Each structure stands twice: as C-alpha cells, then as structure tokens.
Amino acid sequence: MDSSDHHHQQQQQQQGMVGLVTVAGQFHQISQQQHHQHQQQNMATSSTHSDRTGKAVDPKTTRRLAQNREAARKSRLRKKAYIQQLESGKLKLAQLEQDLQRARSQGLLVGGAPGGNSSPGAAMFDVEYNRWLDDDSRRMIELRGGLHAHLPDGDLRAIIDDTLTHYDELFRLKSAAARADVFHLITGMWATPAERCFLWMGGFRPSDLLKTLAPQLDPLTEQQMVGICSLEQSLQQAEEALTQGLEQLHQSLAITVAGSGSLSDDTNMGSFMGDMAVALGKLANLEGFVIQADNLRQQTLHQMHRILTVRQAARCFLAIGEYHNRLRALSSLWASRPREILMTDEGNCGELAY
C-alpha cells in the first residue's frame, strides 16, 4: 500500500471515531434530558400533593391519619356488631312469636282459653310466665330429690337459694307486666280458673300462704313460731291497708265515671272528656297496688327463708309449688268434666284452705 492510500485510510478512521463520539454525545444528551424530565415530573407530583394538603406531611399528620384510619376501623366493627345484635334480636323476637303462637294453639294463654284479646305486653308476660313454670317444675324436682336423698345442708341450701332467686325473677316479670297492662294481672287472666278464685291483687294473699304452709313445717321451735306469728300479724296489717286503699280507689273511680256527662249531648263533650281523663289517672294507680302487693309477697318468701331451717325451707318451697300445681290440675279437671256435671253447680268456686 502506497502512502496516499494509507493516509486516506487514516482519515476515514478518524472520521468514524468522530462520528461515534458524536452519536455517543447525542445519546448521553438525550438520556440527561429524559432524567431531567422525570425529576421535573416527580417535583410536579410532590408539588401537587403539597398543594392539595396545604403543607408537607409531617409525623404529627401521619399519626393523625393513622388515628383516623383506626377510628374508621373501629366504627366499622361497631356497625358490624350492631347489625349482628339486630339480627340476634330479630331471631329472638321470631322465637318468642313462635312460642306465643304455640302457647295460644295449646290453650295455655289467657287462663287456659285459646286466643283472646290481650295487649303485646300481656302476651309477652304469658309466654315468659309459661317458661317460668317450666323452670319451676324442674326446681321442684330438684328439691324433692334433695330431700329424699338427704343431701348435706350446703347442697340443699344452694337449691333453695336458686329457687328463691327464681321467684324474684317472677316478681320482676310481673312488675314489668303491671306497667304494660295492669288489668291483665289484677283480673288473673294469666292464671288458671281455680287459681283466680284465690287471687288477691294479682297474686296469692301472703297471710293465707302462711296458714296453708303451717302444717308442712312442723316441728317448729318456739322462736320460729314467734317469728312466723309476728310476720303474719304484720302481713295482715299491710294487706288490710292495701285492701282499704283499693276499695277507696274503686269508690272514687265509680263516682268519677257515674258523674261524667252524656256522649249524646254535644254540650257535655268537654265535661265528659275531662272526667275520662281524671278516671284514667285514677286507673293508673292500680299499677301501684299490684306492685306493692307483689313486694309483700316477695318479702314473705324471703322472711320465711330466714326463719326456717334449710330442710324446713326446702319443704316450704316444695309445698308452695305443689299447691299451685294442684290448683292448675283442678282447673284442667274442671274444664274437662262431663257435660251433665257441667250443667249443675256452674260457677260454684268452693272453699279451699288457701
């Protein structure tokens, strides 16, 4: 190769190197421009977020956001629990409605007569009372078994205490029922016909209960006899005061109703409505009489529990349960008696020792 060709080849190589350097520089410049644009986009995004929040996110704001998220989470949990409670309440209400319908179909409500007009509060009490009777039957079986098995006093006392608590629950149910529909309680529509013969202000007369139980509790110590006699005297005084108060309410109510104007006379409408409002106010006092009478009954059971020994108390509660079971059985026999007997002595209630 001559010198001219060699020189020409060197020039071509130099031009190629210059081209490569130029391309590399252009590629580097493009890469720098893209990197710069990406940084600008990030800055714009950060600026937009900063504009949206008004300030940069600091630790305090982060904590507050975390607290808000936690509060929202708890709110969702509370809402979920509330919905579950509603569902549970709906299921319980449906169960009560089924129990009520079953009790009506079996003739357990309204004194053993199927159907009958009653308020929701009265119907609810009837269902709860029938459940209470079922539980009471189980407790009577436990008491009877404990006495026959001669359980130690400690074990027998536990059954007695549970039975007394069970009666406390009955008085709580009756108190709620008195506030819902006092007529349902005071007329004895929740009890069987035979039980109604001996009702006093929506339940048993406490002093009569003592007379009924006395033969079941022998032998009594002298101190026990003194305690029971003192209890009976105080009960009779309280019963007399309540009875007189109820009689006065009856008289006052009768006078108010009898003195009201005639509905046929438009001019007396204002007077009539005023008298009816007064009568309604007096009727509301019936609730207080029933609740006071139930308090007297409840105190009687607690006093007897304190006066008697463990085994005497067991016999006492067993006698109470068996007595009312016999009255309910008597009602069933009365309702199913032959037709020829039904035609005679209709409405004769008879005398029982209660």
UniProtKB/TrEMBL annotation:
Source species of the chain: Aegilops tauschii subsp. strangulata
Biased amino acid composition, Basic and acidic residues: 49-61
Protein's name in the database: Transcription factor HBP-1b(C38)
BZIP domain span: 58-102
Segments forming a coiled coil: 79-106
GO MF annotation: an example: sequence-specific DNA binding
Assembly with partners or alone: Binds DNA as a dimer.
Domain of life assignment: Eukaryota
Entry-linked PROSITE patterns: BZIP, BZIP_BASIC, DOG1
